[in-house]
């Protein structure tokens, strides 16, 4: 039985990405037509039945987020798609925007209908210049066909979608920083509460979801929430786009059913990762991007689902799976992770700004024979706790997640070069 699914990715590589005619031939905009005849409460009820968890990394229940916004009386409301995708090892949103941009637009337009929103915005990673042009072409074609713009499908509902380009700041992947950047402000996180559903874009109620989250909406509307749930895990319906990279033999984006395969399947199955590219054995894997946990060989038989991974201290996150073989030093790898966060920290809060710098200093000492002492290991653990508990936003709070998990799995490597001082 094949472990690959083509639900979200149906039509990729088979149609002209920006052609409305091609998209409608494979069922495109059928969900929008169906949604236009439904009321917002009924659509949200299906999303809740589907148990769609946010695909951007936080895994917050989409139905709960939508329901919260629906019950806020203030208007106008805005729909924002987070397409910043700055998480290293993650490139699944790029595939959707490149191959199926009209499916993304359909999900956003359905959300527009639900909330009678004034407008939609797609905040696209700055490096995705060609994809931005493709999205603009798809928007223009959808308008010409009557699926976007004024009086959509003759319903009297007006809704437009705008493209906003990021400038390469990782922190703008955080939703409130993204909204600040969209408004032309410095891309730094906001204090919460108030939540973005209450005070979001232009200080108005706003829905912010990830690209992959929005693309699931047409599926849910077409299939119904119960059927969508059955395709995945009882606690999280649907499929998941995973990104395999590193020392994986087959690198790329794969669509898998949640709760139906293990991490071992994802990495070794010939249809998926295909095993290790070298003749060496796997040493560890990094899940969900740089801010996600590191896993060991002993965890390979964990079912790939939000619930099962969480039970073992792992996480789906963005869907990234970076595979590393036994030639890799865990300390050197973590130095690269920490250097990334030093570069991307906005500098607003001390625990993140200075904490990451001190983590790097200690990691460099631990990599040098005789340079570190037992006190450095104590300081390392203290820094991890401080950054996790006291950082202002998710960047600083998760910057040490990989380090924290690696410390538990590879303690002997951390201690190998520690200088043992004699007591006098």
Provide a descriptive summary of the structure in words.
A hairpin with a 6-residue loop joins β7 (282-287) and β8. The protein is of the alpha/beta class. The chain has helices spanning 20-25, 30-36, 40-50, 62-70, 92-99, 101-115, 129-144, 175-182, 211-223, 225-230, 263-268, 306-311, 330-344, 350-366, 374-390, 394-398, 401-409, 411-415, and strands at residues 78-83, 119-124, 160-165, 206-210, 239-246, 252-257, 282-287, 294-296, 320-325, 372-373, 418-419. It contains 18 helices and eleven strands. It is globular and about 80 Å long. The model has no long low-confidence stretch (mean pLDDT 95). A five-stranded mixed sheet has the order 6-5-9-7-8. It has a four-stranded parallel sheet with strand order 3-2-1-4, with helices on both faces. The chain starts with 19 loop residues before the first helix and ends in a 5-residue tail after the last strand. Helix content is 42%, strand content 13%. The chain has three domains: 20-230, Rossmann fold, CATH 3.40.50; 239-325, Ubiquitin-like (UB roll); 330-419, de novo design (two linked rop proteins). The longest helix has 17 residues, at 350-366. α3 packs antiparallel against α4, α6 (101-115) packs across α9 (211-223) and α14 (350-366) runs antiparallel to α15.
Helix content: 40-55%
Shape: globular
Order of SSEs, N→C? HHHHEHHEHEHEHHEEHEEHEHHEHHHHE
Distance linking N and C termini: 66 Å
Mean pLDDT: 95
CATH architectural group of the largest domain? 3-Layer(aba) Sandwich
How large is the radius of gyration?
A: 22 Å
- Sheet-strand content, in percent, reads 5-15%
Biggest sheet character: 5 strands, mixed
Helical stretch count? Answer: 18
| Tally of individual domains | 3
Top CATH class of the largest domain = Alpha Beta
> Which stretches are poorly predicted, pLDDT < 50 over at least 5 residues?
none
CATH homologous superfamily descriptor of the largest domain: NADH-ubiquinone oxidoreductase 51kDa subunit
Order the strands across the largest sheet as they lie in space. Answer: 6-5-9-7-8
Class inferred from helices and paired strands: alpha/beta
The CATH topology of the largest domain comes to Rossmann fold
Count of distinct strands: 11
